[in-house]
Specification:
The chain is α+β, with helices and mostly antiparallel strands. The chain contains 17 helices and 14 strands. The structure holds ligand 9MR and zinc ion (ZN).
Length: 563
């Protein structure tokens, strides 16, 4: 029995506003005073393959009056409350960016920015180069990756990729200050926050251009506050995955920090530093054409972010170096050659996760104006075709379940919420391409945008678990993220703005394996339990992916004059 809604809210002007119910029949939409504002019938039954239930879609798109509402059926069952209004995603969007501040390592979190979630400076000691006990260096800073205290280059690069493209393409969504230490310095806070991570990443590069794969203790800490964690941290061996992602990320950041309208002298200098680091990494990549992958040394249990190929990472690096060079009006041939060589191996170019970053190469090449003047038309065409084909596949997938979302039953993996939002990113990129093409594109764009909205509706509560997967947002937001600070700080509520990993059809932690019966439909494989790291952890890159999508939706609303 359920009426599932986006518990945060629906944009007032949106032509469709969708909910999903487990009962057929009539529904009324009531306002805060309990007055019926709209009534309608649920649509035809859908046998949903993601949660295994028979469900009935509801659309109350005609309601445009701002207010707080809920849905009720004939049996008196009520949904959670939600808003209809202008720029309804502003709060959750800003909180998801601000959440990263709470992951800052190597500094104290002060009450004026952190509220009750303060702690002393953590992980201040020098780290040791793994296997070289005589070599230590200072690598303070950056964000804790997730519920653990490790800091890893490949997920860091992906997080920065999501955030900088979100900012670059949807700048208006980042105009509100976030109450972080740098707020008010004239630079958008998303760039201030990203800089905290980038400064740490720079420390992870060796003289020869190589980049250490990760900086973690030998084993994960207990559930203690970060400043209590006195374990020795190691810089683990260089991988080509880390070098290539680092290269791409630095080249992108060099463009963004120099090109942003808010850039002052300081940002320009920072940008030059990023550019130099990108060039050193590129040189390393060219000198080391063979993949240098990464697996944990025997006995170490911190994350390894393993991967079977570095082709997509190298593709992203080539794409970003090419864009940077084009932007600086330098020769782009070397990068274009490398890009074409890798594209010719036939890899897919539509994902934005830490295992597969090739979608960022498409993003780079298809959204940069300078590179369009130099790059071969064949490359542009290949990227466009691949992105639109994937968008069409996703839109079709959205017609095969009751939630209208681009997910198949097999897509609910560890961190499925990032699959949900990364598909929103791909669809947003496809909308941009479609807009630039002439012809019958309006209905195509509308179709993609319906799915983008469905992805966010799902994240915010329109799903079979009934939870909003962002802490602090919605009547039934999940409350027990697998997050060491939250577990140890003695405060009941977690900080607001953390995206959960989400339902996982193949649970990977002890409690989830014990409690979720085999054969449970994938969307139901979720528990709001702190122990369940394979369902309920948070990470910096699950947040950043969601931020891209909320940024897109907020800006779309403004373009159409909604705000
Ligand atoms: O997000 C990662 C997931 O896709 C993997 O299946 C899992 C096991 O290797 O690791 C996850 O990443 C974790 C990382 O190793 C350490 N920090 C927390 C990450 C989220 O659970
Ligand atoms: Zn720390």
């Amino acid at each position: 029995m359920a009426i599932m809604v986006n518990q945060v809210g629906y944009e007032a002007d949106a032509a469709s506003k969708k909910a999903v119910a487990s009962q057929p029949g009539g529904y009324v939409l009531k306002n805060a005073a309990g007055e019926a504002i709209w009534q309608g019938q649920a649509g035809d039954a859908v046998q949903d393959p993601l949660c295994g239930e028979t469900l009935y879609p509801l659309d109350f798109g005609s309601v445009q009056t701002a207010g707080k509402y809920y849905l009720e059926n004939g049996a008196g069952e009520c949904s959670d409350t939600f808003e209809i209004g202008k720029d309804v995603l502003a709060g959750v969007h800003n909180a998801m960016v601000k959440a990263l501040y709470f992951q800052r390592c190597g500094c104290a979190l002060e009450e004026k920015y952190a509220g009750p979630y303060t702690h002393a400076a953590c992980h201040m000691a020098d780290c040791q180069v793994y296997g070289e006990p005589e070599h230590s260096f200072e690598a303070r800073g950056g964000w804790h990756d997730a519920g653990d205290y490790g800091r890893y280059i490949t997920p860091a690069a992906v997080t920065i990729g999501h955030l900088l493209y979100a900012y670059w393409l949807n700048t208006m969504a980042f105009r509100e200050p976030l109450n972080i230490p740098e707020s008010g310095n004239g630079v958008p806070d998303v760039l201030n926050e990203c800089r905290y991570e980038l400064e740490w990443m720079l420390k992870m590069q060796r003289e020869d251009g190589g980049v250490y794969h990760k900086l973690t203790a030998w084993r994960h800490a207990d559930f203690i506050m970060p400043e209590e964690d006195q374990d020795l941290f190691y810089a683990y061996p260089v991988s080509s995955l880390a070098v290539a992602d680092f290269c791409a990320c630095m080249a992108l950041a060099a463009r963004v920090y120099r090109g942003s309208s808010a850039s002052g002298r300081e940002e320009k200098e920072f940008s030059l530093q990023l550019e130099a680091a990108a060039r050193r990494a590129w040189k390393w990549l060219m000198e080391h054409p063979e993949p240098l992958l990464f697996t944990n040394p025997e006995g170490s249990n911190t994350g390894d972010y393993r991967d079977t190929t570095d082709a997509d990472e190298r593709l992203w690096a080539a794409a970003e170096m090419m864009c940077l060079a084009a932007w600086l009006r330098e020769d782009t041939r070397e990068y274009e050659d490398e890009l074409r060589r890798i594209l010719d191996t036939g890899l897919e170019v539509t994902d934005f996760g830490w295992t597969d970053v090739a979608g960022f190469a498409a993003m780079a090449v298809l959204t940069d104006a300078s590179v369009k003047k130099t790059v071969g038309e064949d490359i542009l065409q290949r990227f466009r075709k691949a992105v639109l084909a994937e968008a069409d596949r996703l839109a079709e997938l959205g017609e095969q379940n009751a939630f209208g979302m681009a997910m198949g039953a097999g897509d609910f993996c560890w961190g499925s919420n990032m699959v949900v939002t990364n598909r929103g990113i791909l669809l947003a990129l496809a909308c941009r391409i479609a807009q630039a093409q002439s012809g019958e594109t309006d209905s195509r764009i509308a179709r993609y945008e319906e799915v983008i909205q469905a992805q966010i509706d799902y994240l915010l509560g329109k799903n079979i678990t009934g939870y909003s997967f962002v802490t602090g947002f919605g009547d039934h937001a999940y409350r027990h993220p697998h997050l060491r600070t939250t577990a140890a700080d003695g405060i009941d509520d977690p900080m607001a703005g953390w995206v959960a990993g989400g339902p996982n059809g193949k649970p990977g932690d002890e409690l989830a394996i014990r409690m979720i019966p085999k054969g449970t439909p994938p969307m139901k494989c979720y528990l709001d339990r702190e122990e369940c790291y394979s369902l309920n952890e948070m990470t910096i890159y699950w947040n950043s992916s969601a931020v891209f999508v909320t940024a897109y939706l907020r800006c779309r609303a403004w373009e159409e004059g909604r705000v």
